[in-house]
Design brief:
Number of strands: 7
Shape: globular
Structural class: alpha/beta
Strand content: 15-25%
Radius of gyration: 17 Å
Order of helices and strands: EHEHEHEHHEHEHEHH
């Protein structure tokens, strides 16, 4: 049964780094993959663009391909976007047998032990740790002890079980940040080669990040 992978984030705005990582992870796992924008991220500042604006940006960025999809469930939920709630909801929809993979970057992985009900995540999904440049993510002791018996290097182990494993996924080290893109736009500069061309083709899509002249 083909795995379903999810990659969350604020995507404020989505950029080529996000999309390339998602593409490579989906390929490495031979999985369906959905980007899942967060509504109220509990561990970081709130998005600059509105919910509707971020959805429009994501839809434009994903147009013309079928490997990466979009899951908007967290945007419809009130309150903080707790990952455990999302995984429980997804598990109820896809059933108890289908592999589900939560994708996290190295920074998020290092802080996983601070997440809400973090040990329960393994009951509902595998975790794919996105490693750039082949560098293994840092693991605090509490996390290392928990994941040691769960770690695998075998994609077949992910496909053979619905949840519970941890696998490192090597992805391209593209040093692109949404913070930098917002700064460029605020300064009146064009973030070409950092975001999909579709976002540059429609000036309205990136308008939330441009400085408003008073």
């Amino acid at each position: 049964m083909r795995a379903l992978a999810i990659l969350g984030g604020t995507f404020d705005p989505v950029h080529l780094g996000h999309l390339r990582v998602a593409w490579e992870a989906a390929t490495a796992l031979d999985a369906e993959l959905d980007l899942m924008p967060a509504s109220v991220p509990p561990h970081r500042p709130q998005p600059v663009a509105s919910t509707a604006q971020r959805v429009a940006i994501l839809e434009a960025a994903l147009r013309g391909q079928s490997r990466i999809g979009l899951d908007l469930r967290e945007l419809a939920r009130s309150g903080p976007s707790w990952t455990i709630d999302t995984l429980i909801e997804l598990r109820g929809e896809i059933g108890p047998r289908r592999p589900l993979v939560l994708l996290v970057g190295a920074d998020a992985w290092a802080g996983l032990a601070g997440w809400h009900r973090w040990r329960e995540l393994f009951d509902h999904a595998h975790i794919g740790v996105l490693t750039r440049g082949g560098v293994q993510a840092v693991e605090p002791e509490a996390l290392a002890v928990e994941v040691a018996p769960r770690r695998t290097t075998d994609r077949a182990a992910i496909a053979a079980a619905p949840a519970g494993c941890v696998i490192d996924i090597a992805v391209s080290a593209l040093e692109i940040s949404a913070t930098r893109i917002r700064a460029l736009l605020a300064a009146g500069e064009e973030p070409r080669w950092l975001v999909p061309d579709a976002l540059l083709a429609d000036p309205a899509l990136l308008a939330p990040y441009r400085r408003v002249e008073g």
